């Protein structure tokens, strides 16, 4: 069982490799001024974003129409923000990962975390995976792992990728218990921050210590 343990001097970035905003968050931290003072660690989080309306009983027609308008507005915002994030990454379009590709890619993020890999090393892996123009499956991820020399220095094996799912689920549950609801999120000194827009607040906390 993997037990998540973070030092107070570490900032954890929680990401989903299928989500452009998560990748933007990683790159924004690459040139973060406080990196010299705080070690940046990376882990995956695979649960879907919280939807508080899922189990709410149906209401009056006017209220249901209002909820439908709100849902439509949220979808438009998410679509627009997705385009902006792709532009920030210098891309005209997104990428597609198969279930096995996402499982293996996220599991390798866990392995890199356990081996205390630097943010630069993590981004090297992520960048190479996202350079692939075809659908990203486990075979593609394994090719990147081999090309970067991760197989020899990290001991990754080509066993059934589905056996990796329980560890990812277990990790997501641990992160959720610490307040993480979706990716990207930040975890610093036991506090969870949704998105990566809270970096200025974290900078102030570091400066005041």
Outline of the structure:
This protein has 209 residues and is an alpha+beta fold. It has eight helices and four strands, in the order βαβααααααββα. The chain has helices at residues 20-30, 61-88, 99-114, 119-130, 138-147, 150-154, 165-177, 199-207, and strands at 10-15, 39-44, 185-188, 191-194.
Helical content stands at 40-55%
Low-confidence stretches: none
CATH homology superfamily name:
Glutaredoxin
User: What is the number of E strands?
Assistant: 4
Can you tell me the CATH class?
Answer: Alpha Beta
- Strand fraction equals 5-15%
Number of domains: 1
Q: What is the overall pLDDT average?
A: 82
Biggest pleated-sheet summary = 4 strands, mixed
Q: In what order do the strands lie side by side in the largest sheet?
A: 2-1-3-4
Q: Given the structure, what is the number of helices?
A: 8
Description:
With 209 residues, this protein is of the alpha+beta class. The protein has a single domain (10-207), classed as Glutaredoxin (3-Layer(aba) Sandwich), CATH 3.40.30. The chain is 50% helix and 10% strand. The chain is built from eight helices and four strands; from the N terminus they run βαβααααααββα. The protein has helices at 20-30, 61-88, 99-114, 119-130, 138-147, 150-154, 165-177, 199-207, and strands at 10-15, 39-44, 185-188, 191-194. Strands 2-1-3-4 form a four-stranded mixed sheet, sandwiched between helices. Strand 1, helix 1 (20-30) and strand 2 form a beta-alpha-beta unit. The model has no long low-confidence stretch (mean pLDDT 82).
């Amino acid at each position: 069982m993997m037990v998540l343990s973070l030092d107070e001097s570490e900032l954890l970035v929680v990401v989903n490799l299928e989500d452009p905003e998560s990748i933007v968050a990683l790159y924004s931290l690459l040139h973060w001024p406080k990196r010299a003072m705080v070690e940046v660690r990376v882990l995956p989080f695979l649960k879907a974003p919280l939807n508080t309306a899922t189990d709410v009983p149906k209401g009056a027609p006017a209220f249901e129409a209002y909820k439908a308008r709100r849902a439509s507005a949220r979808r438009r915002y998410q679509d627009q923000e997705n385009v902006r994030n792709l532009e920030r990454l210098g891309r005209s379009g997104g990428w597609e990962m198969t279930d096995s590709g996402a499982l293996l890619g996220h599991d390798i993020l866990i392995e890199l975390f356990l081996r205390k890999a630097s943010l630069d090393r993590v981004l090297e892996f992520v960048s190479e995976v996202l350079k692939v123009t075809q659908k990203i499956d486990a075979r593609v991820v394994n090719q990147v792992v081999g090309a970067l020399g991760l197989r020899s220095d990290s001991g990754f094996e080509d066993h059934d990728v589905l056996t990796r799912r329980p560890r990812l689920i277990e990790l997501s549950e641990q992160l959720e218990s610490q307040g993480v609801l979706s990716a990207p999120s930040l975890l610093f000194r036991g506090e969870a921050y949704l998105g990566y827009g809270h970096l200025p607040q974290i900078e102030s906390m570091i400066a005041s210590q």
